[in-house]
Amino acid sequence: MNSIIGHCHCKKIKFKVKANSLSQNFYKCDCSLCKKKSIIMKFLNKENFQIISGDNFLISYKWNKKIAEHFFCKICGVYTHHIRRRDPNQISINVECIDDFSISEHDIIELVNGSAYD
Ligand SMILES: [Zn+2]
Residue ranges per domain, the chain? Predict the structure, then answer.
């Protein structure tokens, strides 16, 4: 598996992801929170995600059933990752936090119906 590094905008928070392929498991969610963030996420098992530095700059937001926990940087405000409601053993990351990466026209982005659980 490849190690992939990501940062928030101010680079206080640095994380590492292990994945066979970067361009898999991309999705957007239509719940009321994700719509306002307008992010493309990638989910993975939590053992393949690690905060390398800056965990003291992370703050989190929980709402509704308070199962999912959404993390963002308290300096730059960028959402980095969250613990998933539908499977708390999974982490989703903000794919635009990944270093030297941009979504391409060939990437498949699934739409998840999180609004059903709002
Ligand atoms: Zn930051």
Answer: 2-117
pLDDT band at residue 4 using 50, 70 and 90 as cut-offs: very high
For all residues of the chain together, what is the average pLDDT? 94
The residue type at 117: Y
Q: Would you say residue 86 has pLDDT above 90?
A: no
The Cβ of residue 32 has, within 10 Å, a number of other Cβ atoms equal to 12
Please tell me the distance between residue 14's alpha carbon and the centre of ligand 1 in angstroms: 9
> What is the fold of 2-117?
2.170.150
Distance 69 CA to ligand 1 centre (A): 18
